[in-house]
Design goal:
Elements: H1 5-17, H2 26-35, E1 48-54, E2 61-67, E3 76-81, H3 95-105, E4 107-112, H4 124-138, H5 140-143, E5 150-155, H6 157-171, E6 179-183, H7 194-198, H8 207-217, E7 242-249, H9 253-265, E8 270-279, H10 289-311
Parallel strand pairs: 3-4, 3-5, 5-6, 6-7, 7-8
Antiparallel strand pairs: 1-2, 2-4
C-alpha cells in the first residue's frame, strides 16, 4: 500500500505545517488552525445558505442550513457534525464539504456548531448534535426536506458525534434516523490498535494528537467506556444503515473497520469504502483529486443507501 501520489507530494509540508496541538491549550490550537486556513473565493454554489440558531441544552446552538442548487423536490435531510478533535474547526472550516454534500446528495444539510472542548467537555458536543437532530426532524417540512430521509453525518470527531447521535436516537425513542454517514470516524480511545501502531507519526494525523483530543473532550478514562463517548460500546442492533468511509494511512482506521463490521454482524445494512492511499481529513483538502473523487462517490453511495432504505 502506497500513498496517493498527490498526497505523497505534499505529505512533508502537511506534517511540518500542522501545529503540534498536544503542546497547546484548546484556545491556542483553535487560533493556530484558523491562522493556517486558506480563504475560499469561489465556493460551490448552492440554492441558499442561512445561519440560524437552534435551542440546545447549553443555550442556542449556531447552525448553517444549505439547500441544494437543483433538487428532486423531496431532498434528504442531513445533520452534519464537523471534525477537529472536538476542540477546533467550525461552520466555516467545513463549508465546502457541506456545499458539495447538499448538491451531490440532493439534501438539505444542517451543519452544527456544537460546543467545543475543553471548555465544554463530554457529553456537551454529543448532546448538541442530538438536539439539532431532534429539531431538524420536527422542522423538516419548514426546511423543505423529507423527514423519512433523515441522516446523521460527520467526519473524524464529528463521525463519533454522528454515531453517538444515532445511538441516542435509538435509545431515546427518536427521532427516526434513516442512515448515518461516517467519514474516517474517531470511534474509541484505544491507541494500541494496528493502525495506531502503524501510522502513529508521519501521516499528518498522529497518535499523540489523537490522545490529546480525547484528553480534552473525555478526560476521565471511566467515561470513555460509555456508549455515548465510544459508540462501539453501544448495542449495535437496530442502529440505522451505515456508510463508512476510511482512509488507508490513518491512525483511527482500525476502529472504524471494527465498528462497521460489528454493525454488519448485527444485521445492520452497511456499506464501506476505504481509500487505501489516503490520509485523515483528505476529503476536505482543497485541490486534492482523490478527495474530490471520494466526495462524489460518497454522495452516490449515500443516495443509493437511502434508496435501499426507502424501498424496504
Amino acid at each position: 500500500m502506497t500513498l496517493d501520489p498527490d498526497i505523497a507530494a505534499i505529505i512533508d509540508a502537511l506534517n511540518n505545517g500542522f501545529p503540534r496541538v498536544a503542546t497547546m491549550t484548546g484556545a491556542e490550537a483553535r487560533a493556530a488552525i484558523v491562522a493556517r486556513r486558506q480563504s475560499v473565493t469561489d465556493p460551490e454554489p448552492v440554492a441558499s445558505v442561512a445561519d440560524r440558531t437552534v435551542p440546545g441544552p447549553g443555550g442556542d446552538i449556531p447552525v448553517r442550513v444549505y439547500h441544494p442548487s437543483v433538487s428532486s423536490g423531496s431532498p434528504a435531510l442531513v445533520v452534519f457534525a464537523h471534525g477537529g478533535g472536538w476542540v477546533f474547526c467550525d461552520l466555516d472550516s467545513h463549508d465546502g464539504l457541506c456545499r458539495s454534500m447538499a448538491n451531490g446528495v440532493d439534501a438539505v444539510v444542517i451543519a452544527v456548531d456544537f460546543r467545543l472542548a475543553p471548555e465544554h467537555r463530554w457529553p456537551a458536543a454529543a448532546e448538541d448534535v442530538y438536539a439539532v437532530t431532534e429539531w431538524a426532524a420536527r422542522n423538516a417540512a419548514e426546511l423543505g426536506a423529507d423527514p423519512a430521509q433523515l441522516v446523521v453525518a460527520g467526519d473524524s470527531a464529528g463521525g463519533n458525534l454522528a454515531a453517538v447521535t444515532a445511538a441516542m436516537a435509538r435509545d431515546r425513542g427518536g427521532p427516526a434516523i434513516a442512515a448515518q454517514l461516517l467519514l474516517y470516524p474517531v470511534i474509541g480511545a484505544d491507541f494500541d490498535t494496528e493502525s495506531y501502531r502503524r501510522y502513529a507519526t508521519g501521516y499528518y494525523n498522529t497518535r499523540e494528537a489523537m490522545m490529546w483530543y480525547w484528553d480534552q473532550y473525555v478526560p476521565d478514562a471511566a467515561d470513555r467506556t460509555h456508549p455515548y463517548a465510544d459508540p462501539a460500546r453501544a448495542e449495535p442492533a437496530n442502529l440505522p444503515p451505515t456508510l463508512l468511509i476510511g482512509a488507508g494511512f490513518d491512525p483511527p482506521r482500525s476502529e472504524g473497520e471494527a465498528y462497521i463490521a460489528s454493525l454488519a454482524a448485527a444485521g445492520v445494512p452497511t456499506a464501506h469504502r476505504c481509500y487505501e492511499g489516503a490520509i485523515h481529513g483528505f476529503m476536505t483538502m482543497n485541490n486534492l483529486e482523490l478527495g474530490a473523487r471520494a466526495r462524489q462517490q460518497t454522495w452516490t453511495d449515500l443516495r443509493q443507501l437511502l434508496c435501499r432504505v426507502s424501498s424496504n
